[in-house]
Amino acid sequence: MKRQAADTSAGSAGRAANAPQADGVSAPADGEAWLDAALSALASPLRRRLLDHLRELPGQNQAQLAERVQHEVTRFAVMKHLAALERGGLVASRREGRERRFWFDPTPIQWLHQRWGGELASYWAARLTRLKAAAEGAELHALPSAPAAPGAAPASHPAAAPATPRKRRKRTPRHG
Fold first, then answer.
1. Which residues, in sequence order, are bridge partners of residue 99?
2. Residues 30-45: pLDDT tens digits?
3. Long-range CB contacts (< 8 A, 24+ apart) of 132-138?
4. Which residue from 24, 64, 69, 85 lies 20 to 30 Å from 129 (Cα-Cα)?
């Protein structure tokens, strides 16, 4: 038991050394392992609920968290879920005497948002703008481009022309 607590403390400290707890930090340089661990930890609805409890009241111990979900799982299961959250970097812990206190750490969620949030937000914003324009019957015009760089294709060249929207085929229902 002592060895396990030392291992998890070292893991949290190692993750914190790779990425300071501040806005705009980049993900740790250990490849995709942090991503797998964070997504795996977030996959369970019970773990997400435990994170909500820690966000509402930081510094709870394992027994207090087990009381909150006592009708769903055992205290031992809560301990295992907390270990998975700690491996994912979503929970930080500190031993105080005979008990461990837990705190929610949103940093991996910020890394996930930085990695995909911006790209997906701009993609869906453009799609919704085109849908709105099509529904209203408006025409979309491309923004004027910046002056051409030396060696770039002239404006009359087909590669420089803005892409025209493709016409969609009507789908016919399949029977079978």
1. 96
2. 667 888 888 888 999 9
3. none
4. 24
- Alpha carbon 168 to its chain centroid, in Å, reads 33
Query: Domain-by-domain residue ranges, the chain?
Result: 2-17+30-105
Q: How far apart are CA 133 and CA 129, in angstroms?
A: 6
Residue found by looking up tokens 């015009």 in the block: 141
Distance, in Å, from the CA atom of 98 to the CA atom of 79, rounded to the nearest integer, reads 15
Pairing of strands 60-61, 91-96: unpaired
Domain 2-17+30-105: which CATH number of 1.10.10.10, 2.60.40.420, 3.40.1190.20, 3.40.50.2300? 1.10.10.10
For residues 93 and 65, is the Cβ–Cβ distance under 8 A? no
Alpha carbons 34 and 24: distance in angstroms, whole number:
17
pLDDT at residue 144, rounded to an integer: 75
3-state SS, 67-123, equals: HHCCCCCCHHHHHHHHHHHHHCCCEEEEEECCEEEEEECCHHHHHHHHHHHHHHHHH
